[in-house]
Amino acid sequence: MKSFNGIFPAIITPMTADGRLNEDAFRQVMEFNIQAGVHGFWVAGGTGESVLLDDAENCRIAEIASDQNQGRIANIMHVGAPTTARSARLAEHAAKAGCEAICCVAAVFEGQSARGRDVHYPIGAAADARAFFVYNLPSATGVEITPDLMAKIQDGVPQLAGLKHSAPYIPYVKTFAEMELSCLIGNSRLFLPALLIGATGCVDGPPNMAPELWVAIWRAYEAGDIPAASKAQEKASSAAEALSVPFKFHGAIKAVLGQRLGIDCGDPRPPGEPLTAEEHAKLADKVVALGLDCCGQ
């Protein structure tokens, strides 16, 4: 099994002008990040607009990601859906497509706080022994995966490898680490602090745009140079703040990647809002000011 340590951009889903999946742009974004040194991808998650994709699109994305990756790093494919049966079918397909791991958000409408084990087991089992990650995103699901609930899932899902922790209570990272789970922090501005209390890596959208900034944090941390890692974290956090906070999140990430790679990543899928012409211009200026206008150089 591949390790799940390091930086895992939550990759965007580029769209064509008429709103379809842009396969060529997806491959270019993926390769750009691979060449920058990332350790894997969180595919078709929140940044990838998963809730706005149909099952056929999710299946095709799993196929493209595996084909482009060719086993170089680890693709963690999100298979969350409103029903367990749909998630299980998506998990089965992701495994057949060659994804190295799967992940799943809690069922949004089901209130599964007491049934985490029962809900996650069939999804994990469908993925042909692939590593399984829980996606802890209570702001979207209304269900927080607490350590107690995670212990039930851990007890009942043998494929469980860890979780993406996107809940607000960060000290749980240490608890999950003590449970021998791979805990990927869901806030890239807290990458280094989370590593220092036991996280194994980070999954977030902003690293799509400037993967080299977050790879620098990891490399300094791995080398034991915490002062350098801290400086790298400050630089990466400043970039994330400048490029995503003042703008519409999905539109901003797509626009920055389009500018850096010289491609069109399209607009967010409705009801997501596109950037205005004024926002595009302001964002483009920020990319230049941050020295990110030359494709990772």
UniProtKB/TrEMBL annotation:
It comes from Caldilineaceae bacterium SB0675_bin_29. GO terms for biological process: small molecule metabolic process. Pyruvate binds at residues 47, 203. SMART domains: DHDPS (SM01130). The keyword Electron transport does not apply. This is Dihydrodipicolinate synthase family protein. The active site is at residues 135, 164. InterPro entries: Aldolase_TIM, DapA-like, Schiff_base-form_aldolases_AS. Keywords: Lyase, Schiff base.
